[in-house]
Amino acid sequence: MVYDKVYFLENNYGIKKFLSLYNPNESNLVIISKEAISLNNVLTALLPNQEIIRIPRIPTNYIPPEQQFEKQIEEIVQFSNQYKNYLNFIEPPSEIIFFTFHNIFHFYVLLSELMKRLQVTFYNIIVGNDNDAFQPFDIKSIPLSYQQHFMKLKELIGFELIPFKGYNFNTLALKIFEKAKEVHDVKWREIANKFSIEKYNINKDAALIIDSPIFDGAPAGVDPEKTQNNLIPFFKKQFQKGKSFHLKPHYDERCNSISLQGTEFENKIKVLPKYLPVELIMDQYDEVYSISGFSTAIYDQFSCRIFSLSMLIDFRTYEEKQHFWNIFNIKFKKNYSLVQLDDDTIEIKRIDDSTPDKNLYQTNKIPQKEQDIVFIQSGSSLLAIIFKEKHRSNNALSENTKDELCKQIKSNCPDAIFINDTSNITHDFIIRIRKHTQLLVGQIDDLLYGNDFYRNFDIIFSSIPQLVLKLRQSGIASYYHPCAFDHRKTKQKRQEKKYAIALSGNISLLNDIEQNKINTYCHQTFSKCIVLDSKRLNNNSPLQKYVGHKFEENDTISVFSQTKIVFHMNNPKESYLNNSRLFDITGCGALLITEYNDELSQIFDINNEIVVYRSFEEGVELVRYYLKYPDDAQVIATAGQKRTLTDHTVDMRIQELAKILDKHI
User: Fold this and answer.
1) Among the listed residues 161, 142, 167, the one whose alpha carbon sits nearest the alpha carbon of residue 72
2) Does any domain span residue 410?
3) Are 416 and 399 a contacting pair, CB within 8 Å?
4) Are residues 9 and 88 in the same domain?
5) Closest by alpha carbon to 516, among 539, 537, 540, 542?
6) 222 and 259 in contact (C-beta within 8 Å)?
7) For residue 531, what are the domain limits?
8) pLDDT tens across 256-291, in order?
9) Residue 13 CA to chain centroid, in angstroms?
10) 181, 208, 256, 586: which has the fewest Cβ within 10 Å?
11) Same domain for 18 and 104?
């Protein structure tokens, strides 16, 4: 018998692609698995006159343990003897449309025979929208016994099979999958118009629930009783508002329960046919609620508003909860905006050209305006950066700031949260934001707390190599992350250089003789001199007269921008570079004269971008020289500023940090 098209379809994963290709005006034959009850029900409802053949699956249709190899071989031989010629009635020029999928050995056996005389077109539907989760890997990387088994399967089935890395190791697909075509999907509403879809007499107060099989073990690790207890108050509140609900059960034939079974609401909701693709009816509703939020419904554009109740799902362990939210973020972060409306509901919005906040997710630089938190897109990952709060009287975040940060984090659900100053973070704040991200990352410059506090973070960054080593020895993931220039603190307009020289750094560590030398030199040479870090000076220090007024930490940037030369003194006890002043000074366009350090040559071109001294006396002479020859000072200062703004800004450090975080997300 001749057909226009003969479709091989394994399960509901490929239903949209099948319906996109299917032409009801052609002569078609559809071949499905006998066990695919839900798929059979869908096809029967949508295509009542369609001829369908149901083929039984080979029982061991996956990669079995080594001790079951022989059993699988016997099953394939038995199936082949019984069904190999089962489809011989299909004659040329019938075209075979084969939707590739993993672990469908029964179809592979039939296809091997049909390919000898019929044209076959392969279309890729490997796990629907989860292609990124299944990647082929080198067969040589698995044990020899498995390689030998795959060779036997190739001889029996007639195709080379390749293993895939997926949710588990037990996944095999045709090698030819790599050459399969992609189906150009049509919109679900076009499919609904193409076929006869039942209308459900929906009133304006009705909403649709896309159920998750919480009593059948999905999502993985779910605690069904606790989750149901969380759902009850939500639905009670909705019913009190006068809403009614239709519930679409999960289509999987193994799932025979609903999330509201046994509750007072079980008989108050209308349960729709489980086999029907929910996407075909979504446009009949104004509001759609998905209990897990994983439905492929949101991968298309609908006129309804779509909400997730994932916040109400409870898990048996913290690890299972983290796994769930990791997948949730991966599925939605790239093309969707997640807006938490309250403690129960997240609205899922597609990011398109009309979305006002689109640029927020596309920028990979921090805003010019100083903020407490910014969101930066790195590839497909969203990074939230919490900056040190401005103008606070103590070291702790204010409650208002905490509440605002939590609100923004919940709304955006970033893949990673980077806190650039953990000294102002409390344990209660960590608990509040932890559940809304995959990675919690902190920056430290001192071990202010014990290891138990830092174990709340997935990764700790530090600009002090010794701290990185100490944390790693304690089993805490840690990376070296040098300081940088925060360009947001500078004024856009170039400022007048009203100070000839500023003294910066560990001035208080200078002995009395050295401070007196500076005093004498300042008195003899400088008419305009300013001393920073004055709060570290002894009240009797001769340098107090040059302080002028008490400078706060945020004032230093302004001072550097108005200074020609900055004489900077490092802590002599430190053999490493851990001082953002080096970048603040050069970034503001001042000439940096600083103590020599072996690491300086890694970040600046010495004598061309900065000037170094090896003794206090040499430093004083260098200051004297560059005050005498200001043009030479300006050349070096300009080069140093260019280097900092090119290589050592917060933007650059964030990009470096994002590359590290991408490996952990």
Assistant:
1) 161
2) yes
3) no
4) yes
5) 542
6) no
7) 493-648
8) 778 888 898 888 888 888 888 888 888 888 888 988
9) 25
10) 181
11) yes
Clarify whether residues 63 and 161 are in a common domain.
yes
Give the 3-state secondary structure of residue 444.
strand
Q: Minimal CA–CA distance to 657: which of 371, 488, 409, 439? A: 439
Could you tell me which residues come within 8 angstroms of residue 644 by beta carbon, excluding any fewer than 6 positions away?
Answer: 485, 583, 586, 587
Same domain, 305 and 343: yes
**SS3 readout for 175-197:** HHHHHCECCCCCCHHHHHHHCCC
The reply to whether 86 and 10 lie within a common domain is: yes
Once rounded to an integer, what is the mean pLDDT over residues 316-328? 75
Q: Looking at the structure, do residues 414 and 499 belong to the same domain, yes or no? A: no
Separation between Cα atoms, residue 481 and residue 5, nearest integer Å: 60
CB 345 within 8 A of CB 310: no
Q: Is residue 190 part of a domain?
A: no
- 189 within some domain: no
Portion of the chain with pLDDT greater than 90, in percent: 17
Provide the edge-to-edge strand list for the sheet that holds 95-100: 51-55, 28-33, 5-8, 95-100, 119-124
The alpha carbon of residue 574 and the mean position of all alpha carbons in its chain are separated, in whole angstroms, by 37
Q: What is the DSSP letter of 82?
A: H
Residue ending a domain, among 323, 350, 377, is 350
DSSP per position, 359-426: HHHH--S--SS--SEEEEEETTEEEEEEPPPSS-SSSSPPHHHHHHHHHHHHHH--SEEEES-GGG--
CA atoms of 457 and 455, how far apart (whole Å): 5
CATH number of the domain within which 472 lies: 3.90.226.10
Alpha-carbon torsion (501, 506, 507, 512), positive or negative:
negative
Q: Is 542 helix (H, G, I), strand (E, B) or coil?
A: helix
Rounded CA-CA distance 152/72 in Å is 11
Please report the DSSP string for 245-283 in residue order.
EEEE----TT----TTTTSTTTTTSEEPPTTS-GGGTGG
Binned at pLDDT 50, 70 and 90, residue 550 comes out as very low
pTM value? 0.51
- CATH number, residue 607: 3.40.50.2000
Which CATH number belongs to the domain containing residue 280 in this structure?
A: 3.40.50
**187 within domain boundaries:** no
Structure tokens given for 270: 């209308």
CA distances to 71, 414, 435 from 376, in Å: 53, 9, 19
By the 10 Å C-beta count (0-12 exposed, 13-18 middle, 19+ buried), 653 is classed as buried
The domain tally of the chain equals 4
Residues in the chain: 665
DSSP state, 242?
Answer: T
Between 62 and 171, the more confident residue is 62
In the chain, the N- to C-terminal Cα span, in Å, equals 53
Same domain, 542 and 417: no
Domain boundary among the residues 350, 379, 413 is at 350
Residue-wise pLDDT tens digits, 200-230: 555 667 889 988 888 777 777 889 899 999 9
Please indicate, yes or no, whether residues 411 and 443 belong to a single structural domain of this protein: yes
CA dist., res. 544 & res. 333, Å (int)? 55
